Amino acid sequence: MSSILISSAAAILMLFIQSTWLSHGIFLGIIPDLAMSVLLFSSFINKNGQGIIVSFVVGIVADMLSASPLGYYAFLFSSCAYLATLLSYTTEKDVFIIPFLLGTGATIVMGFLSRIIALVFSANIHSYQIFSAEFGVELIMNGLFTVLIFFLLSFVQRFFEHSPRKALP
Amino acid sequence: MKNSRFHGPTRAVHQKAAICLILSLMILFVSTKTMVRLPDIFKGYVIGGLQKSFSAVSSFFSRTVGAVSQLRSVQKDYELLLNKMQDYESRERDFAALKEENQRLKELLDLSSLPNTKKMAAHVIARDPSNTYSSLVIDKGYDDGIRKYMPVIAYQDGLEGLVGKIIEVKASTSILQPLYDQRFYAAARLAKTRAEGMINGEGFRDSPLSLLYIPKSEMDQLKQGDIVVTSGLDQVFPPEIMIGRVGNFRLNEFSSSLVIDVQPAIDLSRIEYVFAIDVSSMLSSGKGPGK
Predict the structure, then answer these.
(1) Residue span of the structural domain in which B105 resides
(2) How many angstroms separate the CA of residue A147 from the nearest CA in chain B?
(3) What CATH code is carried by the domain that includes residue A97?
(4) Are residues B91 and B179 part of one domain?
(5) Mind spelling out the 3-state secondary structure of chain B?
(6) Any chain B CB within 8 A of the CB of A37?
(7) B residues 12-31 closer than 8 Å to A (CB)
(8) What GO terms fall under cellular component here (chain A) (predicted)?
């Protein structure tokens, strides 16, 4: 339970940082999705699906911070977390390649899913402009920042990890 | 205990994912139809308060850092200033005369196109945390008299320009949709030829806006730098608010209208203060939208 709270708090903190301190963007006005990187980390190290629940909660908070309708980021984040959890069964975490692929992959998945949501739901829903130069910058930026977030959080990984109670002898 | 990486994901993982995804879709379905009141209250008081706090912490640190660096330069500047003091004393007399003249000119020119309207000043405290939505958060809300769909303008470098409109009002903060948002539309016209069209954002702060539906017959008279203003026909924005200037334009084959890029009058990347216009105060003066 504590790991869920810590992961949620860390990701929500990143959301606030994104909306205030990083609001002008880092390059070409593009804001890196640090919250998503934290959620990917939580999902990847917890194979029991804890990261999906955290992503859903953080997604609801992101919807409240954003002009998006409630449930938009909850769906996008939960989907990415689910895929990251599935991926954790097939590969091990490394320093660069896996975090980078997770960051860029999650951005692409969010891009395509947002298009589908925009088609299915009402006209007021925005979607990623996946063929724009800005999306390319965001893709690379999210990949690189995910590497950095994975590196930094690996020092405090035990706080983010679900620790089941030890079985009785 | 066996290492879980040798096994596939358990049924519980799929169940958790399915529950979260279905739940988020259900919420999305409900929220796109109608806003639930409880999250609004939470957004208004808790989220708005937290955003204000983060903004305050940010400005505190930036001011502190700024003050320290200023102190370093004060020592150097002090001696220089002493020398310049005498020079400035003589200029002060000229300055007083210029100030009076400037005041008179301001009264004469009255640069604002909306002189008798109620404008509520607000500080931009945050932006959307993602790149998909491009909304801005201001520190004034329902309690301050802000209402949904209020037009928002700003002044920059002596120019008055359109910024966007309010799309969500909370207790102490509001969300405004800037004109570069991909879902922003406003009735616009070319100030010179009075040709009417519609302005639409491209979704990115640095991208020009698109002025659509200007007839191709206007092509001969159109020039780069021509001013684009609101027409007021959309019943949202008052007429004659400057939107920007014409950049590149082209005529697509088999199209009856031009595609015109418009450079916004206000640089929204460095915007700090905005003014929400109370349209109801304009209606009494007969200068409201659509008039």
Answers:
(1) 84-113
(2) 19
(3) 1.10.1760.20
(4) no
(5) CCCHHHCCCCHHHHHHHHHHHHHHHHHHHHHHHCCCHHHHHHHHHHHHHHHHHHHHHHHHHHHHHHHHHHHHHHHHHHHHHHHHHHHHHHHHHHHHHHHHHHHHHHHHHCCCCCCCCEEEEEEEEEECCCCCCCCEEECCCHHHCCCCCCEEEEEECCEEEEEEEEEEECCCCEEEEECCCCCCEEEEEECCCCCEEEEECCCCCCCCEEEEEEEHHHCCCCCCCCEEEECCCCCCCCCCCEEEEEEEEEECCCCCEEEEEEEECCCHHHCCEEEEEEHHHHHCCCCCCCC
(6) no
(7) 12-13, 15-17, 20-21, 23-31
(8) plasma membrane
